[in-house]
Design goal:
This protein is mostly beta strands and about 280 residues long. It has helices at about 25-35, 115-125; strands at about 5, 50, 95-100, 150-155, 160-165, 170-175, 175-185, 185-190, 200-205, 215, 225-230, 230-235, 270. The strands form three sheets. Strands 11-10-9-8-7-6-5-4-12 form a nine-stranded antiparallel sheet, with helices on one face. Strands 1-13 form a two-stranded antiparallel ribbon. Strand 8 and strand 9 form a beta hairpin. The termini are close together. The model is unreliable at about 135-145, about 240-255 and about 255-279 (pLDDT under 50).
Length: about 280
Amino acid sequence: GCSSHVGRIGGAQEIWVKGCGVQGSVVHEIMHAGGFYHEQSREDRDAHVTIAFDEIDPAHRQWFEVRTGSRLLGPYDYSSIMHYSRKAFSRRGQDTIIPKVPGATIGQREGLSDLDKAALAQLYGNASPPGPPTGPPTGPPSGPPPTGFSGSYTSQRGDVTCSESGGSVSCSFPGGSMVCAVQGANLDCGWLGGGLGGGQGRAVFNRQSNGTLAGTYGDFLSHDSRGAWDLVPSGQPGAPPGQPPAPPPGLNIPGLPPITLPPVPSGLPAIPGLTPPTQ
């Protein structure tokens, strides 16, 4: 079998991987053990995919049901390793999951998506950075380290407020929010709702020497299709006046921490990635 319980169930956590086939499917099951349900079971899934229940093998329809009350960590992610493929558990070879974004690819098992990594960092924190070198410096003293990303900003798209924790940055603006992964002086983000008609998509920012975060934002498959989005620290000369909010940004976490599984209510069923759990 290839399956796992969702979240910690007490004692040693057993994961069945003999029938997984590829490494990505093993990662999928480890994510279940870490507390993650399938992406197509999110409460907001009907806005992003259509589930063809008539085409699903009746023995597996339960894995396509919405999990009400579950926590949403970032926007819906077609690229998540937790998403089933188009023909998952199809009984006649027809699509069982139909994305509402034309051309969207679902069901990849290559590895964690950027939003998967961001969700893990948001839930468990980011890996600790390496310690300082032990030997003497070999070059001139370095400049002051870059400051964090927490604070208030003004932009062409409205006022933005951000807070930083570990390797991720969470921001809010009128009618929307975004979650970003820190990559040195850069932010790789995913935005959700609000501003410019709402929706979801990606954005990237690069911190300039004056503290401004120069960036662009776009739709689901792009980070710049909607134009420029520069975040200027509040109070800095030349800060643009606030305007209607823009969509939030995406994620890319460089390192992942050791995972301590959170307790969950007992009696939860096993959630298989490919086959039912081995009894």
